[in-house]
Specification:
mainly beta; 11 strands; 5-stranded mixed beta sheet; elongated; 4-stranded antiparallel beta sheet; 144 residues
Amino acid sequence: MTFSVLLLADHAAVSDGALYINGGGINLLGKDSFPAPLEAMLAAAIDVPVDRFGTPIRFTVTVSADDEGQDEIAHVDGEFVAGFKPGIDLPPHPASNPFVIDLRLLAIPKAGNYVIKAQTGDAEQRLYFSVVHASVGPIGDEPE
């Protein structure tokens, strides 16, 4: 299994097996003071082989201030069962199973670099993002 999607977004939702993403691909956030809410949602999709349909699939998502996970600030364990409605022919390839984790209220303790690790079975995907003081601002926002 692999993560075919893993990104931060302003808003994300799943409907009828599809991810709906607004403001996706966030990797730099500006905050006025700390601790501060992350104000982003994690959009993800796990590609599941058809021979795993109908069996529980566990996943773990962590948010840490370092790559080794020593400074973990969030931990989510989840489980789902992949499959299609009866009567649908199974595809010959893995099928995408999307999900969303609401991290908008997650407290970010300080400016710095962070990593989201998503794991299922042997598959692991990492998503890096940075949080800066808002007064620094993203490139391109400097007054002229």
